[in-house]
Specification:
The chain has helices at residues 56-64, 71-77, 103-132, and strands spanning 3-12, 15-24, 35-40, 52-54, 68-69, 81-82, 85-86. By secondary structure, the protein is of the alpha+beta class. The protein has 2 domains: 3-86, S16 Ribosomal Protein, Chain: A (2-Layer Sandwich); 99-132. Residues 86-133 are annotated as: Disordered.
């Protein structure tokens, strides 16, 4: 059974509140979970200690048992320490190809550039003929 430490959304519309839970990876986001180990309230200021509350010892135990934290939860757990060590490691993702346009968009841009170059060449040709006469 694959375990995840992830966020489960609660709260009403436009007022999010999340629980940090340990759940089976196949379970729905807000569905069945094994244990609740903390909370996250994104509406509270970032520097407030009440924004993220996590039981670090439980999180460390679940990670030792093989539970994988999601990217957002790993970011939270990297700031929490147990025995002087962070509970989880988080590194900033790097995907330089994400910003590149797809194949079709690149083809369209190339066609537009060719048409613009042809128009510029056509505009210069009559101007040169007028100066020669």
């Amino acid at each position: 059974m694959s375990l995840k430490i992830r966020l489960a959304r609660g709260g009403s519309k436009k007022r999010p509140f999340y629980s940090i839970v340990v759940a089976d990876a196949r379970a729905p986001r807000d569905g069945r979970f094994i244990e609740k180990i903390g909370t996250y309230d994104p509406r509270i200021a970032k520097d407030s200690p009440d924004r993220v509350k996590v039981d670090a010892e439980k999180a460390a135990d679940w990670i030792k048992k093989g539970a994988q934290p999601t990217d957002r939860v790993a970011r939270f757990l990297s700031k929490v320490e147990v025995d002087g060590k962070p509970v989880a490691t988080w590194t900033h993702g790097n995907n330089p190809k994400k910003a590149e346009p797809g194949k079709k968009a690149q083809e369209r841009a190339k066609e537009r550039a060719e048409k613009a170059a042809a128009r510029a060449a056509a505009a210069e040709a009559p101007a040169e003929e007028a100066t020669e006469s």
